[in-house]
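Entry 14. Structure prediction run on the chain below.
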Amino acid sequence: MNPDIEDILISEEEIASAVNRLGEQLTTEYAGKNPLVVCILKGSVLFLSDLVRAMDCPLELDFMDLSSYGGGMESSGQVRILKDLDTDVSGRDVLIVEDIVDTGNTLSKIFNLFEQRNAASVKVVTFLNKPERRTADVKVDYVGVEIPDKFVVGYGMDFDEQYRGLPYIGILKPSVYSHLFN
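Output returned:
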């Protein structure tokens, strides 16, 4: 275990099980359709890779990069588009892939954007869900794992661009980020 990790919250095996379950649900949901699967960069990349391999249906991929965190650990509430889609969503069934839904502010902005762009449908699959932190009224259609309000890293999720490659979801030790509060 990485020395900066206080505890492993979700093991590699639990990740695989949740991804396989979601893949089966999404295969059923999108049977006979060709959804546009939109990965929210960067944290969702590992989840997306595993998820689309677990889905047995035609699909297309695209990527968006949005920022609401900067280098901190709390959402700023301001969402900026750093990289927009290359694909037109008009008339498309869109599946947004998130690593974690926390406040829901980023997701709310994406929903509004895709609605303005006339997507036929917009659904969300997230690996982690923190409902107690929600400040925006957003619907999460598919959830891998619901977690408590802890600062987590690993499986694509980071703190200051570190820890993304951990094969598990770990709780970051407060000593790693406590300097932000001094």
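The beta strands are 5-10, 36-41, 60-67, 80-83, 93-101, 121-129, 142-146, 152-153, 169-172.
Filed with the rest of this week's runs.
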